[in-house]
Amino acid sequence: MARTKNPHVRSMLLERAALMLRRREPVTLRGLVAGTNVSTMAVYTYFDGMDGLWRALRQEGFTRLSARLAEVAATADPVRDLAALGAAYLGNALENPDLYRVMFDAGFELEDSAAADETLHRVVTTVHRAKDAGRFRSGLDPLELATQSWTIGHGLASLVATGPLPRETLANGIPLLTALFVAAGDERTRCRRSVREGWRL
């Protein structure tokens, strides 16, 4: 009879791996279970080995990002909401810098790529709302604008959360997003106000 897996053990191993990354410690089988009540076999039981652990860590990064984005409530101002999603993306990267690095390590497959895609889809949906509200041009491709917006957030996160630049650099998100959204059809003064309102870090 197969032994029931304990989800707490799985979570504990993921948290320990994330902590080891944060401390710049090598993530090894023995190091992962040191000081716990589980053996190295737990890594095989729950993840089918170290490659599976890295896949799960990538997925955990997207799971946390998805949860953070879900905290952004939709308002009557979809452009403000787009900026707020960008700020949430950056907030997640700042809080989980080591998981953030692992998220984009394409050397390991994701456990659920559709769940990861959902994070971008949330931005696409918000672009649709802005377009329907007349803030963006009617011929605009929502996926293209969402990807461009995502690129700005990812660039800032890479430079600040996991890179060499100070947190003050994040303020550049306001003029960058404003320029992007104005080019997409929004009115400059209104757009700047919306972006400032949503860009709360």
Automatic annotation (TrEMBL):
The keyword Transcription applies. Residues 82-166 form the HTH-type transcriptional regulator MT1864/Rv1816-like C-terminal domain. The keyword Lipoprotein does not apply. Coiled coil: none annotated. Keywords: Transcription, Transcription regulation. Signal peptide: none annotated. Pfam families: TetR_C_33 (PF13305). This is Transcriptional regulator, TetR family. The lineage of its organism: Bacteria, Bacillati, Actinomycetota, Actinomycetes, Mycobacteriales.
